[in-house]
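Propose amino acids for all 190 sites.
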């Protein structure tokens, strides 16, 4: 503070050299003098109103920016909450659908499993029936073959006995009767 008062006191002691104008080379003291003069003039003429107006305007502008920022943040927060709720609702919906697909999938698997088992049993029954039919067919064919062989052997023996016992006329009549009998047997078996 002593420096400031010294600088004011030094104003009265300008070096004068017979009408010449001099400069104070002490930068610190001259800057302080200039600043104090400017501030004094501002305070005296503005009576503090302008400084408080500027400060008040700055504070009001700052307050408005802060309020706008808070309002924007609240709007964004509200939008974010809405998006969050929509996302949660979608998540719940997707979880329900997934559970439903899971249950449907399990029941579908069980149904397919039962269908496959039933189909396999039906196929096995058909194969068993086909096997039985084939066995019966083969048995019947074998029986028919044995009958034919037995009949042929019996016929040969009978013909052999008849040939040795019969004359030509009786022999021809017996042959034609046998031929007729064989023809009728053949029609029955066909």
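Proposal:
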């Amino acid at each position: 503070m002593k420096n400031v008062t010294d600088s004011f006191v030094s104003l009265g002691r300008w070096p004068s050299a017979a009408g010449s104008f001099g400069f104070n080379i002490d930068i610190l003291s001259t800057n302080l003098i200039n600043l104090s003069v400017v501030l004094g003039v501002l305070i005296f003429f503005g009576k503090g109103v302008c400084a408080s107006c500027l400060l008040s305007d700055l504070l009001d502008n700052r307050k408005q920016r802060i309020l706008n920022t808070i309002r924007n943040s609240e709007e964004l927060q509200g939008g974010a909450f809405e998006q969050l709720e929509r996302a949660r609702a979608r998540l719940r919906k997707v979880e329900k659908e997934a559970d439903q697909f899971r249950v449907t999938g399990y029941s579908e698997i069980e149904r397919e499993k039962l269908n496959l088992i039933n189909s396999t049993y039906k196929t096995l029954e058909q194969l068993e029936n086909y096997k039985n039919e084939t066995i019966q067919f083969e048995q019947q064919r074998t029986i028919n073959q044995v009958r034919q062989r037995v009949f042929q052997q019996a016929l040969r023996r009978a013909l052999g006995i008849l040939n040795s016992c019969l004359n030509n006329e009786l022999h021809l009549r017996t042959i034609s009767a046998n031929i007729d009998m064989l023809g009728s047997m053949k029609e029955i078996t066909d």
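The CA atoms of residues 3 and 9 lie 10 Å apart. Helices lie at 2-9, 27-46, 49-165, 168-189.
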